[in-house]
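Title: Comparing notes on inverse folding

I've been comparing how different people in this forum approach sequence design from structure. To keep things fair, I'm posting one structure and asking everyone to reply with a full sequence. Here's the target:
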């Protein structure tokens, strides 16, 4: 099945497509804000509260190390959540719109 220029125009001007774009933008902005908040929170903690971040929690480990690793894990989790959402919701919606409008 191929999509013609008329089908593309029909999809681009459909209400469902605009809702899907809006939803994708909302999810992207939410995840971006979460990641930037965590990242800059960590950087601000390093910059303005050195005694806290350098608190010893073991013989050779400070609190900054698990917080930094936690930041990396948080980024992986957000990436995984986005992939899960995209594979299960976004792609399905794209297929539905395409099938619905090309009938």
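Reply #1:
Here's my take.
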């Amino acid at each position: 099945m191929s999509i013609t220029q008329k089908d593309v125009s029909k999809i681009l001007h459909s209400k469902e497509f605009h809702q899907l774009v809006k939803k994708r933008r909302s999810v992207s902005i939410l995840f971006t804000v979460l990641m930037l908040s965590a990242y800059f929170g960590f950087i601000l903690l390093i910059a303005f509260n050195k005694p806290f971040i350098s608190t010893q929690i073991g013989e050779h480990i400070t609190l900054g190390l698990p917080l930094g690793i936690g930041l990396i894990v948080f980024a992986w989790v957000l990436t995984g959540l986005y992939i899960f959402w995209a594979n299960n919701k976004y792609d399905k919606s794209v297929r539905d719109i395409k099938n619905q409008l090309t009938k």
